[in-house]
Design a protein that fits this description.
The structure is a single chain. Helix content is about 50%, strand content about 5%. It is mainly alpha-helical. Strands 3-2-1-4-5 form a five-stranded parallel sheet, with helices on both faces. Helix 4 links the parallel strand 2 and strand 3. Helix 3 packs parallel to helix 4, helix 3 packs across helix 10 and helix 11 packs across helix 14. The chain is globular, with a radius of gyration of 21 Å.
């Protein structure tokens, strides 16, 4: 049986676990406004005890975020522009959809509020939950929209995921993110779809997970290829791979592609949106963010916190605390309890091993192996960092990246 972490007594007051592998050089401290803590080794606090994520929210996001009448005018203006450019085409934009609340509500806003004709684009990387599939089907039928599903070659997907496991980095969900993002952009470019809509938003994502928690900031094909070269076996002949330089510079400034986030310009309250989607389409809510994918659920709920000591729910709950959709006390209570119990995790551990065609004992050895970071492999992180700083300086990115 796997050792799944700290005792309940270790979590009571702060919702903090002490799993093996966690970096504990600093004296433990937690923000007195949200629940971000020193499991982010670079976190800082002001004289009031508020973390730099909260400071960034109040100083940079909140003054520039207008989910009100001003935002509705921006939404209407963008809709008019997109509709005008889309005349004579089958679709005037493309929207990636996972079946989760953010992308689902973005599809509703695009069709019903903006009057657009989006092509819903889904990437099947082999890990869809049945609930996610049902949600997508109900939205497609209820909104009367077309859906294109891109199916990733499973042997290539499996091999790249195994390579990231063997690399012992906390970023093992990177191959899925790479597939989702790259397939969408590749399709849009191929079919000359200029506008890409996304469910990204400040309301539930204003506190971004730090990169040491496996949130590498952008698609770095150098990193991917180096890890696959060392640990992969199957050639990546058809796997979609669009580098950050390609979509940030070439796609935007040469091809004129524009990315628009409709949820930042309209009222988006998570529980309200989920209730509306459920009442209107029969959409089913998930236990937690990113549970549309069984792999991401396993990764964020088990692998990352138990092997590396990083609990992404801290950032997810902190976003809701900052935007006043959850109290800090509720966030602390919820972070002190796992989303799913140990028996469920043990079964999912076996499922993931079987799915990857790996003996359970071999996956357990990988789980118990020595942790590494992307620094062990070739990467373009320094260049990506310069780009992120430039975007913040230009006001194109408000969230705190590190």
């Amino acid at each position: 049986m796997l050792n799944t972490g700290a005792s309940q007594a270790e979590k009571v007051s702060t919702g903090r676990e002490r799993p093996r592998g966690a970096m504990t050089r600093r004296e433990y401290r937690i923000c007195n406004n949200c629940i971000m803590d020193t499991s982010d080794s670079n976190i800082t606090f002001d004289e009031r005890g508020r973390c730099d994520y909260c400071q960034n929210y109040h100083n940079h996001i909140l003054p520039n975020w207008h989910p009100d009448e001003h935002g509705e005018k921006v939404l209407a203006s963008a809709a008019e522009k997109i509709r005008k450019d889309g005349k004579g085409r089958d679709f005037d934009c493309i929207l990636g959809i996972s079946g989760g609340p953010d992308s689902s509500y973005a599809a509703y806003v695009a069709k019903e509020k903006m009057g657009l004709r989006p092509l819903l684009f889904h990437v099947d990387a082999g890990w869809n939950s049945q609930q996610a599939v049902r949600n997508i089907e109900r939205l497609v039928d209820g909104l009367g929209l077309d859906l294109h599903t891109e199916v990733i070659n499973w042997e290539e997907m499996r091999d790249l995921q195994l390579a990231f496991f063997k690399a012992q980095v906390p970023d093992i969900d990177y191959p899925q993110d790479l597939a989702f993002f790259s397939a969408l952009y590749t399709y849009a470019v191929k079919h000359r779809i200029k506008y890409v809509l996304t469910g990204a938003n400040f309301s539930t994502e204003c506190c971004r997970e730090p990169e040491e928690w496996g949130a590498y900031p952008g698609i770095d094909t150098m990193l991917v290829r180096d890890i696959h070269r060392r640990f992969g076996k199957v050639p990546l002949k058809s796997f979609p791979m669009v580098d950050i330089i390609q979509y940030k510079l070439y796609y935007k400034y040469v091809l004129g592609m524009e990315v628009f986030m409709p949820l930042n310009h309209t009222r988006y309250v998570k529980k309200e949106a989920e209730t509306h989607l459920a009442d209107r389409f029969g959409w089913e809510p998930f236990d937690h963010k990113h549970h549309e994918s069984r792999f991401t659920r396993f990764y964020e709920d088990f692998w990352l916190p138990k092997k590396f000591g990083y609990e992404r729910r801290r950032a997810h709950f902190s976003s809701l605390v900052m935007t006043k959709q959850m109290t800090r006390d509720e966030a602390l209570r919820r972070i002190a309890q796992p989303v799913l119990d140990d028996d469920f995790h043990a079964k999912e551990f076996e499922f993931v091993a079987r799915k990857l065609d790996l003996p359970v004992e071999e996956l357990r050895k990988l789980f118990e192996g020595e942790n590494r970071t992307y620094h062990s492999y070739r990467n373009k992180r320094a260049l990506i960092g310069l780009g992120a700083k430039a975007m913040r300086w230009l006001g194109l990115e408000r969230r705190l990246f590190r």
